[in-house]
């Protein structure tokens, strides 16, 4: 089932459900794009029709962040839970190790994706890493990066270039990449590699992960100003009854 939130389709799935859907994508062998949708991107998509159609063209869209879960609740179309990029990636990596799926990590500063892959293999000794590549290449270098991934033939591609750059990269090259499941993961490689700490568990439980990030990375303040605007928009739209089940 899906809901329509501010014009964007969001799938009604929890973490386990998202993993199952992606397992189906892997079995199909056909390219699929997964988007973990956060309030910043959904807000931006209100002004960028191309971004909104990218979201609506994805094969699975999960609610990344309490803001999206809250907005869905206010609209009367609740979602079971938030499914963030990092949580979904970690769950998929565990599944990949068990199933023998190859994973490719693209993004972050040089060395970070390798270190993240090393730590993931330490935790899941059977994990097959098809390749890693940093995320600082010029637009002219994209075809070469795509070719590198295509020939590595991963089942899962995690792209950490920041949103929406990573979603745009995947959408642009979805067919050329030929990867069964590709998804953006933001700064997850930095967290997995131990370069950036995640908010403590108690903060995450209290839905205060955003506050933990703000304390650690004050430069995010400007970006976070969009959250109250998003909340206001979602509330207004819900009141006028324009959101609802598809
Ligand atoms: N990044 C990258 N290439 C770029 C810009 C950013 O690989 O051209 C990486 C950056 O090093 C970081 C991630 O993308 O690892 C962005 O992390 P952030 O937490 O800002 O993601 P967002 O919250 O924007 O999705």
TrEMBL record:
It comes from the Bacteria. Pathway: Cell wall biogenesis; teichoic acid biosynthesis. InterPro entries: TagA_TarA, WecG_TagA_CpsF. Its EC number is 2.4.1.187. The keyword DNA damage does not apply. GO terms for biological process: cell wall organization; teichoic acid biosynthetic process. It holds the Pfam family Glyco_tran_WecG. It catalyses: UDP-N-acetyl-alpha-D-mannosamine + N-acetyl-alpha-D-glucosaminyl-di-trans,octa-cis-undecaprenyl diphosphate = N-acetyl-beta-D-mannosaminyl-(1->4)-N-acetyl-alpha-D-glucosaminyl di-trans,octa-cis-undecaprenyl diphosphate + UDP + H(+). The keyword Transferase applies. GO terms for molecular function: N-acetylglucosaminyldiphosphoundecaprenol N-acetyl-beta-D-mannosaminyltransferase activity. Keywords: Cell wall biogenesis/degradation, Glycosyltransferase, Teichoic acid biosynthesis, Transferase. HAMAP family: TagA_TarA. PANTHER family: PTHR34136, UDP-N-ACETYL-D-MANNOSAMINURONIC ACID TRANSFERASE (PTHR34136:SF1). Catalyzes the conversion of GlcNAc-PP-undecaprenol into ManNAc-GlcNAc-PP-undecaprenol, the first committed lipid intermediate in the de novo synthesis of teichoic acid. Belongs to the glycosyltransferase 26 family. TagA/TarA subfamily. This is N-acetylglucosaminyldiphosphoundecaprenol N-acetyl-beta-D-mannosaminyltransferase. It comes from Desulfofundulus thermobenzoicus.
């Amino acid at each position: 089932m899906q809901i329509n939130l501010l014009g964007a389709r969001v799938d009604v799935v929890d973490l386990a459900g998202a993993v199952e859907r992606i397992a189906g994508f892997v079995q199909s062998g056909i390219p699929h794009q997964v988007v973990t949708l956060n309030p910043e991107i959904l807000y931006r998509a209100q002004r960028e029709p191309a971004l909104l159609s990218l979201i609506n063209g994805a094969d699975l869209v999960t609610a990344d962040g309490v803001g999206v879960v809250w907005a869905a609740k206010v609209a009367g179309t609740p979602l079971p839970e938030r499914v963030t990029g990092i949580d979904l990636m970690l769950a998929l990596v565990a599944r990949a190790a068990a199933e023998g799926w190859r994973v490719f990590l693209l993004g972050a500063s040089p060395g970070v994706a390798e270190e993240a892959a090393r730590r993931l293999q330490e935790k899941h000794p059977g994990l097959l890493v098809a390749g890693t590549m940093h995320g600082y290449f010029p637009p002219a270098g994209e075809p070469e990066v795509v070719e590198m991934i295509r020939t590595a033939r991963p089942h899962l591609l995690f792209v950490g270039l920041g949103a929406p750059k990573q979603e745009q990269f995947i959408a642009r090259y979805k067919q050329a990449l030929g990867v069964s499941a590709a998804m953006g993961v933001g700064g997850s490689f930095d967290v997995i590699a131990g370069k950036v700490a995640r908010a403590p568990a108690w903060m995450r439980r209290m839905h205060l992960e955003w506050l933990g990030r703000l304390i650690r990375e004050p430069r995010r303040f400007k970006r976070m100003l969009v959250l109250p605007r998003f909340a206001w928009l979602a509330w207004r739209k819900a009141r006028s009854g324009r959101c609802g089940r598809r």
